[in-house]
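Morning. Coffee machine broken again, so started the prediction first thing and wrote up yesterday's gels while waiting. Chain of 540 residues, entered below exactly as on the submission form.
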Amino acid sequence: MTTAESSRSPTGPLQRWLLGLIVLGMIWRCTRYALDFPLWGDEAFVANNIVLLDFVDLGGGLEHYQIVPWLFLALQWLLARVLGFSEHALRLMPLLAGIVGIVLYARLAKKVLPGAAGVLAVAFLAAAYYPARHAVEIKPYATDLLVAVLILLAAWRCIEHPRTREVVLLGAVTIAGVWASYPAVFVSCGAWLTLSWFCWRERRDLLPFTIGLGLACGASFVVMYFAVGRDQSAAAGEVLANLDLWARTFPPIDQPWRLPQWFVHVHLGRMFAYPIGGDGGGSALTFLAFCIGAVVVWRKERVTAMLLLTPFGFTFIAAALQAYPYGGSARVAQHLAPAICLLAAAGVHYVVTGRFRGEDRERRVHWVLGLCALIILAGIARDIAKPYKTRSDLDNRRIVLGLLRGAPPGTLWNVFGNWDGRSDTPNFYDWAGPAARLRYYLVRDPDARVFWGADPLALPAAGRIKLLAYHSPDSTFPERLFDSYLARFQALWGKPKVSEHLFEQAPERIIVYSFAGGGRTGADRHGLFAVQSLSHANSR
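Came back before lunch.
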């Protein structure tokens, strides 16, 4: 396809389809946002860092072994200090990234693919579940997609108008982009390699400047890595290395006979779930369309094909070095979603236009677009019927917030568990997501007085004290350790009132032991000072 062809906008019914699908995609994202899904474990991992860390701590190793781009985390931290720590406040930036991303992606699709093929590409992304879901989660995946679209748009503009200012724009986007999205480096490398090849063929006078800015982008990534990424990777490395889910995304380079099986498993799974798909070969049709589209685009315009395909190669190299996953899930491959949808749409359009002519061809394109619209409507209906990821997430929020709101002012909460690896109470890091979401709802209110595995002697003598024992569905509750811990409280405050709060998905539950307080003697200045010094540390 030529630049002139790619700049043609769809007209008539196709234009209406384009606008309608963009609006439906926005409505889906806004509906999920308005439904206020309770946090699930992975979201809570990031949310707790935003709530608990000081700004200067964002550049070091993160809590819960998280690896999160610094710019994303910093903007979230600043926004939360203005809007608060509610789910709506923490999800606002991902929502905006998702909405802007789909609008800019539509612009990219109209430029890269002419007419109906571009509209199909927009339909595939708008109807896909994972971009809609990640646009309303406290994770950087929506930003990954947005930054990838921005880089591809800027690179395409350089190809359309090979001038110095366009190259400078691409440089600005890529230099900043690697701070907002870790996989942006793969899209950036693909863009600079493609543009360098294009300049070698068409504008050699721009080649030195292009290479120079490409190296500047590389330098930006290196600075980011040594300033932020290295500490995050070191803090999370051992945990990630032991995750089977993570390990399966690395190609078995040391066992080359397994590569074909790995290749099929990865590319036919959720990585290619656009507009629908899943594991176990569920995305086979999308991958087939993608391959057809890649051949079609390569034959017509190799620069475009190179721009869209090179990020896959760089991501694969990183996976071979065990530095970043290749596939395995859609969330870690959001930077590849624009290219997947564009090339899959090109493949579907080629099949439709190759087998049918005239009105039949147009009718079948409209059928595909209508099917994508129905998928969006079905997704909206499903979210309204089930506004949570799991019932357990919903129960966790309901129970914890209900306990906090129902407690008298000044109540002190002490949780049987810790975040610093002590052996006298469970290490909640080992309890992963369920403990992380419990932590979020307990600490997001700055006025809540929450301690984790505190020594009873270090707690204030006055006021009501509630000991909270959380029974996780994925971890064995240490009954003997808890009995010993509870006995220390009973020796100071007597027998507590006990209330049990069951989750719908047994055996998960929260048991609260309420002590009247005020009956302990010996609450000396040392004990009160210990409370003040422990308050911040224990909440973390």
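The first helix runs from residue 3 to 6. Going to sketch it on the whiteboard this afternoon.
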